[in-house]
Specification:
The complex is a heterotrimer.
Chain A (H helix, E strand, L loop, with lengths): L31 H13 L2 H31 L6 H38 L2 H4 L6 H20 L1 H12 L4 H7 L2 H27 L2 H25 L3 H4 L3 H12 L11 H29 L5
Chain B lengths: L1 H16 L3 H19 L5 H25 L2 H8 L2 H4 L7 H31 L7 H28 L4 H12 L13 H9 L11 H25 L8
Chain C lengths: L11 E10 L2 E11 L2 E6 L6 H8 L7 E6 L2 E2 L10 E4 L11 H11 L4 H14 L15 H13 L5 E5 L7 H16 L3 E5 L3 H7 L2 E6 L2 E7 H7 L5 E7 L2 H8 L5 E7 L2 E6 L2 H15 L3 E5 L5 H10 L14
Parallel strand pairs in C: 3-8, 3-9, 6-7, 7-8
Antiparallel strand pairs in C: 1-2, 1-4, 4-5, 9-10, 11-13, 11-14, 12-13
Helix pairs in contact in C: 2-3, 2-4, 3-4, 8-9
Classes of the chains: A mainly alpha, B mainly alpha, C alpha/beta.
Chain lengths: ~300, ~240, ~325
């Protein structure tokens, strides 16, 4: 049966009222910021998992600053005896333990789910059907998570170090104390990387939020503890490198002049372990994103 | 009771066919391995047993039961399978109790094997003479499983969307209160230490009886809270 | 054993029921009775259909009012739920289970003894056309297969009231025909079936009784054609294809109930306030003029038109509800 109508060479466009956007478009180099904003906006909606730990970090900052002020006043009444720099570093170093606790909760809540949720919901087909490169997506996610978790593990110690410098009695004292700011920055970067990259890497590897969260928590609570105790008891410092939390502690202890445990690894070894874990997390993330972007994976 | 048993069968089937059982298996392997490693350096078997049990109860056992049960409500809400269950002629809390009935004995059995293996590794040919350590350890493990399960279920009912983060916060903050006088009564680990007698010498704990009572009170409170919450909460979101 | 049923208590009765979620209104002051047979629950997205379904299924507690099954509050009386079957809209199931295991589980939870539950589950799945996939894990099921499994789980325990939320979504034409036939058979057997759907022609294939929900309120209920008659703002349209449409139109224009005529290629569309009078007049006109009529129909005497007219009408002052009986 042949059709009486043949397909013509002409066509008609009907005006549906839609107007193509002709204005200024965001430059490609900045599109990752859209992803970053989305990470932060989504995370901010979580009351218990995000706002509460951030509140905890703020309280830690306030309490630590208060302790530093009180200790400073006690010291000035005692006539300046004792190592003031050491005391400032001690408060900073001890408070970092609390900042990292809240950072761990943030990482477990947000970082492990950052990729896993997108994989499950099939969001990649929306992202990569637009002029967004996989690298933009990765950069955006990482920046968002670094900002969020860094509010506790980076901003906390850095702000505290600045407060400490400001509490110096005179300009000379302040200049003497200045080195603790870059130390706090280094510790913040190391601690934040140690949380963000392994967490997001686990989410990318396992693909499911609950599984990634469980794996992350099991690692931080059980395996790290197990490894740390074994390394300490058996005096095997290299085994202790598998525990990221103690690696960060070793690096922090070195930076702030804390006495080190004989069973602890060398600071450079601890730093290298942090780098290795971070790179592994990043590689897992990149590989998953690249394969998902081209394979069109995602969604139930 | 019948819906509880049916749902327990469902939970057991899903556990067996799923992947989360490997989490328990991995965590259960750690204590005997840990003890074996420590025994290469330490001569005092009792000290090794105490350190291992101290670590196992606070981390491995508690986390194993939490990983399985903390998402009890959240899983049903995420997949919307709660619509099948809660439109049936049964109480909503049957979902929690069914999972508890399936998971708690499984985790207990896994760690009972683990602790028995640890006991054999640590005490070796003196094992028979140190049976009391094992029995107290198993009793403490049972206490942690029951109390940990109750807390995990309460978490699942109270914060179904991010239960594991809440569990993490609980373990990192509230359980640390075991070292704070008076407040230590709300810590599972504190009561477990009393039952097992596995704690640092300087650590003051109550008696085994007070430990059991403490665990029962905590478990009743958290489980009651979980049941109350799930019976009365409305998790359904507005939709068309 | 079922709970004692009050004599003459309707299968479904909703009494002054409202439901809100914080500031969001789900449904508002709905009173509704549903008797035996199939009823279509229609409404645009966000109208409150699923809220209504969930209230009837005992998943939500009314903020005000009551939702009753056979005279008993479904949220509080657990035993009355043995007579209820609910197939939700979503696709979520227990992926680790096979179809048979899933439906058996649902049967057992609905009170079917364990010894019989497996056989009943198998029968329900075969009935719905899943005999070849009965022991496959649900993880590998297509959308249509999941849909049918859900349906089987809602029917396995032979409930008296069946709530089906979008039951035909994702089903191929053969499966649709199968399900429609099944629903008709259930209605003929005396069951009460409420179907919520966006696919109006499919609901039309099942029933003429509808409940139209819009913005949380019941906008219309009853026979769709009676409801159509009551919609005064939209005159009925009748389309006639014939050899001389202009001559037909000229004769029809003399009728005072005719509002407008519009011509198309070989056809005329007549708008009238009284379709019955027009249908009476047309044969007489056709015979008198010797016209050859090829087709006669009403483009808007259907569920779609009723849906469109009622849900897009500007809101007017609430007045006495209009009723049209059979």
């Amino acid at each position: 049966m042949s059709s009486e109508r043949t397909v013509g060479a002409t066509g008609t466009i009907h005006d549906q009222g839609y107007q193509r956007y002709e204005g200024v478009r965001l430059p490609r180099s900045r599109r990752f910021l859209v992803i970053t904003r989305n990470v932060l906006a989504t995370a901010w909606k979580a009351r218990w998992g995000v706002k509460l730990p951030l509140l905890g970090a703020v309280l830690t900052l306030v309490v630590s600053a208060g302790i530093m002020i009180v200790m400073g006043q006690i010291e000035s009444r005692m006539g300046g005896r004792g190592g003031r720099l050491l005391r400032a570093d001690t408060v900073l170093f001890i408070s970092y333990g609390f900042f990292s606790l809240f950072g761990i909760i943030l990482a477990a809540t947000v970082a492990t789910a950052a990729i896993a949720d997108d994989l499950k919901s099939g969001s990649f087909q929306f992202y990569f059907s637009r002029p967004l490169r996989p690298d933009d997506y990765v950069r955006g996610k990482l920046l968002g998570l670094f900002v969020l978790i860094g509010c506790s593990t980076f901003a906390g110690p850095v702000v505290l170090s600045i407060i400490r410098v400001c509490l110096a009695e005179d300009l000379g004292g302040a200049i003497k104390l200045l080195p603790i700011i870059p130390k706090a920055i280094l510790l913040g970067v190391a601690g934040t990387s140690a949380l963000v990259l392994p967490a997001i890497g686990l989410g990318a590897l396992l693909g499911k939020r609950v599984a990634a969260q469980a794996a992350f928590i099991v690692y931080w609570i059980v395996i790290s503890g197990f490894v740390s105790v074994v390394a300490h008891e058996l005096r095997l410092p290299l085994v202790g490198l598998l525990a990221l939390n103690s690696d960060v502690n070793v690096v922090g202890g070195y930076l702030f002049g804390m006495p080190s445990d004989s069973g602890s690894p060398e600071p450079w070894q601890a730093g290298l372990a942090i780098v290795v874990f971070s790179v592994a997390g990043y590689v897992a993330l990149r590989r998953r994103i690249r394969s998902s972007a081209t394979a069109g994976l995602g969604g139930v | 009771m019948q819906p509880v048993m049916i749902l327990a069968r469902l939970a057991w089937l899903r556990l067996w066919r799923g992947r989360t059982k490997w989490v328990t298996a991995l965590l259960a392997i750690l204590p005997p391995c840990f003890a074996a490693l420590l025994m290469t350096e330490k001569d005092d078997a009792v000290e090794v047993w105490q350190i291992t049990l101290f670590f196992a109860l606070r981390a491995a056992v508690l986390l194993a039961v939490a990983v399985h049960l903390a998402s009890s409500v959240g899983d049903e809400l995420d997949s919307k399978t709660y619509t099948y269950l809660w439109s049936r002629p049964m109480r909503r809390s049957a979902v929690l109790l069914g999972k508890l009935l399936a998971i708690a004995p499984t985790v207990f059995a896994a760690f009972a094997l683990s602790l028995t293996a640890t006991w054999l590794v640590v005490f070796q040919d003196q094992a028979g003479a140190n049976l009391e350590w094992l029995l107290r350890g198993l009793a403490a493990e049972l206490a942690v499983v029951i109390a940990g399960a109750s807390i995990a279920l309460a978490t699942s009912a109270l914060v179904p969307k991010r239960p594991l983060a809440f569990v993490l916060g609980y373990m990192m903050f509230l359980e640390r209160l075991e070292f704070v006088p008076f407040l230590q009564q709300i810590s599972i680990a504190y009561h477990a230490s009393a039952i097992s007698a596995a704690h640092p010498p300087s650590f003051v704990v109550g008696t085994a009886t007070s430990g059991v009572i403490g665990i029962l009170v905590l478990s009743t409170f958290w489980l009651g809270l979980a049941i109350w919450r799930v019976e009365n909460a409305e998790y359904a979101l507005p939709d068309g | 054993m079922n709970a004692p049923v009050r004599m003459a208590a309707p299968p479904i009765h909703i009494e002054a029921c409202s439901k809100w979620y914080g500031q969001v209104l789900g449904i508002q002051d709905i009173t509704l009775t549903v008797k035996q047979g199939v009823v279509g629950l229609l409404g645009p997205n966000g109208a409150g259909k699923t809220t209504l379904m969930k209230l009837l299924a005992g998943l939500l507690r009314p903020s005000r009012g009551r939702a009753l099954l056979f005279g008993l509050p479904v949220i509080d009386d657990l035993q009355v739920r043995r007579r209820l079957g609910y197939a939700p809209e979503h696709e979520g199931v227990y992926d680790e289970l096979t179809a048979r295991e899933f439906v058996t589980l649902m049967a057992e939870l609905s009170g079917v003894p364990r010894a019989r539950a497996r056989d009943q589950a198998s029968a329900a799945l075969v009935d719905i056309g899943l005999e070849n996939a009965i022991d496959r894990r649900l993880h590998g099921f297509s959308k249509g297969m999941r849909q049918r499994t859900k349906l089987a789980s809602a029917l396995v325990h032979d409930p008296d009231v069946i709530l089906l939320d979008e039951p035909l979504t994702g089903c191929d034409p053969v499966a649709r025909a199968n399900i429609i036939a099944r629903i008709r058979a259930l209605a003929a057997a005396g069951k009460t079936i409420v179907i919520s759907s966006h696919v109006l022609y499919e609901v039309e294939a099942l029933t003429q009784e509808i409940v139209l929900v819009h913005r949380g309120r019941v906008l219309a209920e009853g026979n769709v054609y009676r409801i159509r008659e009551l919609i005064d703002q939209h005159p009925h349209r009748v389309r006639i294809e014939c050899d001389r449409p202009r001559e037909l139109a000229a004769r029809v224009l003399g009728e005072e109930h005719v509002v407008r005529v519009q011509f198309e290629d070989g056809a005329v569309e007549i708008e009238t306030r009284s379709p019955d009078r027009l249908y009476d007049a047309i044969p007489r006109i056709v015979l008198d003029a010797g016209l050859a009529v090829r087709s006669l129909g009403s483009p808007d005497d259907n569920m779609q038109a009723v849906f469109d007219y009622l849900t897009t009408a500007t809101p007017s002052k609430p007045g006495k509800p209009q009723k049209g009986g059979k």
